[in-house]
Amino acid sequence: MTNVTHSRPLSPHLSIYKQIPTMVMSIVHRLTGMALYAGTLLVAWWLFAAASGEATFDWVNGIFGSWLGRLVLLGYTWALMHHMLGGIRHFIWDTGRGFDPETSTKMAWATLAGSITLTILIWIIGYAIRL
């Protein structure tokens, strides 16, 4: 008996496709969406701590204020900004615009650059207000 699966064509996979900015940003959009679930749990934890009393709130603020906590919050901020801009990009596509390769590639790079820029601005403003 012969193995019939050897003669079947392979289904395309990520390792076969050339990675283009639009594809990468689509994958990152999905990943940031998943990361926002975890980040929203952290926001909820912070709100519960605020409602639980000063000692609990100070403890949670201490965790978020550590270098690791700030790194996580920085990542959450970037994920939120990237996901928002990716959503705007998808909204533009929903209007039937921006599908040509040049425009979609520019929009993909703009999503990345915009998310980094907005994250930096948010953190600069946050630290400026804090002082």
Automatic annotation (TrEMBL):
Q: Which UniProt keywords apply?
A: Heme, Iron, Membrane, Metal-binding, Transmembrane, Transmembrane helix
Kindly give the membrane topology term recorded for this protein.
Multi-pass membrane protein
**UniProt key word Metal-binding:** yes
Alphabetized InterPro entries for the sequence: SQR/QFR_C/D, Succ_DH_cyt_bsu_CS, Succ_DH_cytb556, SuccDH_FuR_B_TM-su
What this protein needs as a cofactor is: heme
Q: How does it assemble?
A: Part of an enzyme complex containing four subunits: a flavoprotein, an iron-sulfur protein, plus two membrane-anchoring proteins, SdhC and SdhD. The complex can form homotrimers.
Q: Which family does it belong to?
A: Belongs to the cytochrome b560 family.
Q: PANTHER family per the record?
A: SUCCINATE DEHYDROGENASE CYTOCHROME B560 SUBUNIT, SUCCINATE DEHYDROGENASE CYTOCHROME B560 SUBUNIT, MITOCHONDRIAL
Q: What does this protein do?
A: Membrane-anchoring subunit of succinate dehydrogenase (SDH).
* Protein name, UniProt field: Succinate dehydrogenase cytochrome b556 subunit
Tell me the organism. Answer: Hoeflea ulvae
